[in-house]
Amino acid sequence: MTENEISKVIVEAAIEVHRTLGGPGLLEGVYEEALAYELSLRGLQVKRQLEVPITYKGALLASPLRLDLLVNDLVIVDCKAVTNYNPIFSSQVLTYLRLTKKCLGMVINFGERKVVDGIHRVVNTLVGLNELQSRKAKNAFRLLILCALASLRLCVKFLFGFQICSFYFCGQTGSLSYVKVS
After folding, report:
1. In which region does residue 122 sit, left (phi positive, over 0), alpha (psi from -120 to 50) or beta (all else)?
2. Count of CB atoms within 10 A of residue 35's CB?
3. Residue finishing a domain among 108, 123, 138
4. Rounded to two decimals, what is the model's pTM?
5. Which of 108, 101, 85, 118 lies closest to 38 in space, CA to CA?
6. Are both 147 and 110 inside the same structural domain?
7. What is the mean pLDDT of each run of 10 residues along the chain (182 residues)?
């Protein structure tokens, strides 16, 4: 599952937890435990209160980062149960994302009357940018290969007098085969 698919399940599970427990008024830990249970019922892998070591200039700090929930090793969830949402919560999750090199985090405030009003997505664009650059590089390489194959097609037609319909490349063996048009 992708981060977006996981986040959809997390939102649905948070709504179910909020509805089943009767809305706001409980402690964060209660909502966190119930959400972890609901997500596991939905087939997701959930780690609670996960300690993540932090290094500072090569030194391992004694106080690790503690994540409320890590879902499928991809999405960080920070549970809150406050009446007033503070934007610092999103900033904290962004820091968690950067330290763990993850793309997506969510702050879920169960203290809202409607939990959907308390769900905030946080995206680490630095990780996304690296992934995007990698995707662009792969696409550029594919384009280069296609141009080379088109040139090869022309050369074969000129030198050998037959036309090539299509090429097949085997990634495991590295061999290139073709279909000849009569």
Report:
1. beta
2. 26
3. 123
4. 0.69
5. 108
6. no
7. 94 97 95 98 97 92 95 97 94 94 95 95 75 64 67 63 55 52 53
